Amino acid sequence: MESSYPCKFDISAVEGGYKVTFYCIAVDKSHTVDVYDYHTIDQVLIAAWNESKKYFNRCHQCGAWVCDEHYNEDVMKCIFCQPK
Fold first, then answer.
1. pTM of the model
2. Of the N and C termini of the chain, which has fewer Cβ atoms inside 10 Å?
């Protein structure tokens, strides 16, 4: 189970649940998930991140979460650690 999330995210209450938005650290590209039927914020974040993490890549050097546009897939690093 993933234990870390992008450093940029928003969480807000919506009727019956929560809306969670995770952002790429480089730009405001984001992915938003509505989460229902969880009782704690930790459970909400885990459920939302499990759905959202497929839209992000983790840099193998600095650990930052970035979108595909800001990820150098050839070396598995963000473009700040290894430009394309």
1. 0.84
2. N
